[in-house]
Amino acid sequence: MAPVRIPVGVVVERRKAKSPWLDFLWRPVSVLAGVPSAAPWTPIDAAAETTLFYAGDAVIELHRTESTNYRDNLTSGAPALWVVLRATASGPGYEVLAVTADPAEGEAFTDPGNDLIETVPMPVAIAATIGNFIAEHHVERPFIKRRRGDRRESAE
């Protein structure tokens, strides 16, 4: 079965660094439900030392086998999305690599090392879509505790 796809837009903050080694600090700050018509890296708002950009679009893919992770995320009290930015040699310095609602996948993105990964609050419209997905596709799987030495041979 094909995954359910939710198109989103990513908003990133660029803040003046207080370090002699960096000019700016970048971090994802929010995700928009849907994709705006603006071009990637369009400035949205600016203050004294901070600028918000629409960084680009991504797609959240929902898979039936991960419905337990989505459910745990939604019932956590603070549902979040994981936004992954990858450094580039050109332009503003980053590109949107991925957005996920799966906490395990979000954590897995931290393993390679050089990507910028942040959690942002999940918009209500996206939470509703994920809630509907869970209601339609989630199947409770019983936990089976294995005991040491309890191995099953696949071929006899």
Q: What keywords describe this structure?
A:
156 residues; alpha+beta; 3-stranded antiparallel beta sheet; 3 helices; 7 strands
Verbal overview:
- There is one protein chain.
- With about 160 residues, the chain is of the alpha+beta class.
- It is built from three helices and seven strands.
- Helix content is about 20%, strand content about 40%.
- The strands form two sheets. It has a four-stranded antiparallel beta sheet. The chain has a three-stranded antiparallel beta sheet with strand order 6-5-7, with helices on one face.
- A hairpin with a 6-residue loop joins strand 5 and strand 6.
- Helix 1 crosses helix 3.
- The two termini are about 35 Å apart.
Brief summary of the model shown:
This protein is α+β, with helices and mostly antiparallel strands. The protein has helices at 67-74, 103-109, 124-137; strands spanning 4-16, 24-33, 42-46, 50-62, 80-87, 94-100, 116-121. β1 and β2 form a beta hairpin.
